[in-house]
Amino acid sequence: MPRYALKIEYDGTPFSGWQRQSHHRSVQQSIEDALRRLEADAPGIAGAGRTDTGVHAIGQVAHCDLRKDWDAFRLAEALNFHLRPDPVAVLVAARVDDNFHARFSAQERRYLFRLQARRAPPTFARDRVWHIRHPLALNPMQAAAAHLVGLHDFTTFRSTMCQSASPVKTLDMIEIEAIEIPHGTEFRFHLRARSFLHNQVRSIVGTLERVGSGAWHPEDVKTALQAANRAACGPVCPPNGLYLAGVGYGVDPFVTG
User: CA 63, 91, 60 angle in degrees (round to 5)?
Assistant: First the structure.
């Protein structure tokens, strides 16, 4: 059966996360339903990351196996037709080798978190950013984030329900930028690692927000990390500002020679 990689964008607001569930609508189910409009016996798909309820994606990757030898462009077009009206889009499809696996072949994952700091609530970005009503200081957050880059035990910054075998991960990058918006600032947190623990990004951003607000000192983040204790973490921020921004592979499956 030919194998295809799909680069996917979705608004996670109406879904109970990526992974198929028995009694709740998921992004995976939406795509699998569209695939089965093309081939009734199409098997399930595998995604590069399992985003939680309300989390979005601008660069999720999944793979699927189909009986027909589809033209990749026509496959993406057909899926997008059948995905309507769900807020899910296949940005591009590509034929890949049989040994390609969206999850296990991935060498890095990139996340974006958007936080808007202003008194007025967001309108166009509603459900797509974390809104806070007080200003934040960029430089202290950047100084605090530097303590988290590298190989660490991230027990403090993972959910108690995390199923990962080990809390030890290498965080390759955290970059924070400030973008002026009308009567406020949007802070964008960019994180990159081979893999992440459950709630790791939301725990990190929630803790860094405490630094930006002045409630924590940058060195307090280092102390919290070294504690290896979930109780030392700052508040976990809501899911609606989080995006799976991209997945990296040794060879980009969507770039043709």
Answer: 50
Q: Domain boundary at 53, 71, 105, which? A: 105
The pLDDT tens digits for 33-43 are: 999 999 999 99
In the numeric block, which tokens belong to residue 105? 């072949």
The CATH number of whichever domain residue 100 belongs to comes to 3.30.70.580
- The span from the CA of 99 to the CA of 32, in Å, is 21
Whether 31 is covered by a domain: the verdict is: yes
Q: Domain limits at 240?
A: 108-245
Mean pLDDT across 57-68: 96
Domain membership flag for residue 255? no
Give the chain's domain count: 2
3-state secondary structure of 67: coil
49 & 130 share domain? no
pLDDT digits (tens, 9 = 90+) for 174-228: 999 999 999 999 999 999 999 999 999 999 999 999 999 999 999 999 999 999 9
E-state strands within 97-183? 108-117, 130-132, 150-153, 168-181
Which one from 33, 52, 65, 172 is the annotated catalytic residue?
A: 52
Q: What is the pLDDT of residue 162?
A: 87
Q: How many CB atoms are located within 10 Å of the residue 99 CB?
A: 8
- 160 confidence band (pLDDT: 50, 70, 90): confident
Please state, in angstroms and rounded to a whole number, the distance separating the CA atoms of residues 224 and 207: 9
Does residue 252 carry a catalytic annotation? no
The Cα 57–Cα 27 span in angstroms is 10
Angle between helices 72-83 and 27-38 (to 10 degrees): 120
Last residue of a domain, one of 105, 123, 149: 105
